[in-house]
């Protein structure tokens, strides 16, 4: 497969992932699927916009660049140094690095959020207060602690599910962008269609 075609397939994959990350981050602003009156009751990591900025907006830049790498015929530029195919593939490496950084940011925010747990109405005996009771991460192994978060209902599951999705999708995005770094290097060094250019030398 030509490096331009392969880059386009990566771009096609990254676009829906970016959209899903944005939607996941937006849903986190509605803990348990509810509208919260006080923004202080929303987990602070949600406000870092890992899914919206990191795996969303920043990821659309490399995705669109990858999609645009295959606008022309794959081998139409072979032997024509002015066509800029190699330079385009080299440029895609820079945008792929931007994608890795964006995904990395989302991964870090998601991992920290999973470790710290959600903000919730914590009940300890007769005392109730909005806090983040799981900052030590123990709740991941001790599910009996989850019942101490009395509101919003199902907040721990909501928190873990959405941030886990962001973590997994961020990892997948980082891998795809890293693959494009290698693909871009190949395209920059030997051209968009390595191994097929020679077959077109005598073409009319």
Automatic annotation (TrEMBL):
<dbReference type="InterPro" id="IPR008661">
    <property type="entry name" value="L6_membrane"/>
</dbReference>
<feature type="transmembrane region" description="Helical">
    <location>
        <begin position="12"/>
        <end position="34"/>
    </location>
</feature>
<dbReference type="GO" id="GO:0016020">
    <property type="term" value="C:membrane"/>
</dbReference>
<comment type="similarity">
    <text>Belongs to the L6 tetraspanin family.</text>
</comment>
<feature type="transmembrane region" description="Helical">
    <location>
        <begin position="87"/>
        <end position="114"/>
    </location>
</feature>
<feature type="transmembrane region" description="Helical">
    <location>
        <begin position="46"/>
        <end position="67"/>
    </location>
</feature>
<dbReference type="Pfam" id="PF05805">
    <property type="entry name" value="L6_membrane"/>
</dbReference>
<keyword id="KW-1133">Transmembrane helix</keyword>
<keyword id="KW-0812">Transmembrane</keyword>
<protein>
    <recommendedName>
        <fullName>Transmembrane 4 L6 family member 4</fullName>
    </recommendedName>
</protein>
<keyword id="KW-0472">Membrane</keyword>
<feature type="transmembrane region" description="Helical">
    <location>
        <begin position="155"/>
        <end position="179"/>
    </location>
</feature>
């Amino acid at each position: 497969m030509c490096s331009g075609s392969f880059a386009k397939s990566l771009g096609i994959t990254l676009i829906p992932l970016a959209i899903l990350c944005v939607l996941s981050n937006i849903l986190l602003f509605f803990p348990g699927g509810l509208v919260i009156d006080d923004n202080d009751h929303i987990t602070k990591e949600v406000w870092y916009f890992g899914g919206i900025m990191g795996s969303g907006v920043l990821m659309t830049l490399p995705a669109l660049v990858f999609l645009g790498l295959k606008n022309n015929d794959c081998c139409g530029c072979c032997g024509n140094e002015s066509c800029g195919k190699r330079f385009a593939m080299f440029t895609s490496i820079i945008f792929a690095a931007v994608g890795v950084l964006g995904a990395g940011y989302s991964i870090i925010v998601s991992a920290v959020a999973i470790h710290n747990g959600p903000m919730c109405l914590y009940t300890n005996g007769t005392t109730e207060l909005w806090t983040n009771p799981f900052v030590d991460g123990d709740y991941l192994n001790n599910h009996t602690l989850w019942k101490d978060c009395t509101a919003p209902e199902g907040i721990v599951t909501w928190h873990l599910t959405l941030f886990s999705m962001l973590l997994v999708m961020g990892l997948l995005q980082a891998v795809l962008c890293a693959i494009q770094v290698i693909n871009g290097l190949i395209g920059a060094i030997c051209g968009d269609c390595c191994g097929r250019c020679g077959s077109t030398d005598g073409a009319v």
